[in-house]
Amino acid sequence: MRMIPALLALLTGLLTAVAVSAQDDVPIFDNYLSLRAVLDAQMKNRDIAEVMTTFGGSSPPEELEALEARVREIFPRDFENAALLRRNEMENGWRQELIAYWTGIDYIYVYLLLHDRDEGLLSVTMRFNTDFDELNAAF
Fold first, then answer.
1. Coil, helix or strand for 121?
2. pLDDT tens profile 25-49
3. Could you tell me if residue 93 is left (phi over 0), alpha (psi between -120 and 50 degrees) or otherwise beta?
4. CA 93/CA 35 separation, integer angstroms
5. pTM to 2 decimals?
6. Calpha distance 86→93 (Å, rounded)
């Protein structure tokens, strides 16, 4: 399904402003596979409020629910596929990732800044957007 350009522009603007930073209540994952299992399940199901909460969103529940409703409006079907598009290994346990989720020709992208620490893996920053170039520019 081709997206309506005005609706796509609105979502792009809204999602560009969404950035999740690590908070004290953000879970530290045992390993990368457990982090991806949670992220992939939530993103594929379009559970945006849950993604934001799981990865440290500090927005009020009403804002998260409104954001999720917009995503569900633009993407009426759950995402069927996920793929790591880009990874940048950095020093001292840090890395960046860009992950795509899609069904048919409907795509959404997730950017993660991860820190592997002694106690586990932490998603320090998480952003998502329908504009690949917006998130790819973080690399």
1. strand
2. 668 999 999 999 999 999 999 999 9
3. left
4. 15
5. 0.81
6. 17
